[in-house]
Amino acid sequence: MEHTLSFMPEERAEIERLKSLYPHPKAALMPVLWMAQKKWGWLSEDVMRVVADVMQLPYAHVLGVARFYTMYFKKPMGKYHIQVCTNVSCMLRGGEELYERLCQKLGISHGEHTPDGRYSIEEVECMGACGGAPMIAINEDFYENVTFEDVQRILETLP
């Protein structure tokens, strides 16, 4: 059974609203890519083509923006995407060890997801919370001053 990807009418209205916020509608590409990623989980070639169509932009332009920014997933990721900062402040406060222990616990490494699709993990550069190091993000929720035990408790609370 073939499934056609498309934005729903209310999503198309939101895209038009986003485009109206900028002097040039193509400036809304990043929030539209974010919308698409939230809807479909990642930016497949087909999803990027849908975005290109709705934005009236060349596919190559959409692909270039999606490839440039690491916040856009170009492959399937877990339902819960864990980002662990290992930059200087976080590294000095245990970020690297936290990342390694999480990888070991989940049985995956950078950019991979668990076989059940529940978790993916990524080692990232500075997330702008040096005073709260080490820090992680799970999807769009941020946690500072975390230990491995803290992260285990957080993961256990996820539905």
What are the salient characteristics of this protein?
159 residues; 4 strands; 7 helices; 11% strand; Arc Repressor Mutant, subunit A; alpha+beta; Glutaredoxin
Q: What can you tell me about this protein's structure?
A:
The protein has 159 residues and is α+β, with helices and mostly antiparallel strands. 45% of the residues lie in helices and 11% in strands. The chain has 2 domains: 9-68, Arc Repressor Mutant, subunit A, CATH 1.10.10; 80-157, 3-Layer(aba) Sandwich (Glutaredoxin). The protein contains 7 helices and 4 strands. A 4-stranded mixed beta sheet has the order 2-1-3-4, with helices on one face. Strand 3 and strand 4 form a beta hairpin. Helix 2 crosses helix 3 (45-55) and helix 3 (45-55) packs across helix 4. The longest helix is centred in the first third of the chain and has 12 residues, at 9-20. The relative contact order is 0.11.
Instruction: Quote the beta fraction.
Output: 5-15%
**E-strand count:** 4
Poorly predicted regions: none
Helix and strand element order: HHHHEHHEEEH
What percent of residues adopt helix (DSSP H or I)?
A: 40-55%
In terms of topology, how is this protein built?
Elements: H1 9-20, H2 29-40, H3 45-55, H4 59-68, E1 80-85, H5 88-92, H6 95-106, E2 119-124, E3 136-138, E4 141-143, H7 148-157
Parallel strand pairs: 1-2
Antiparallel strand pairs: 1-3, 3-4
Helix pairs in contact: 2-3, 3-4
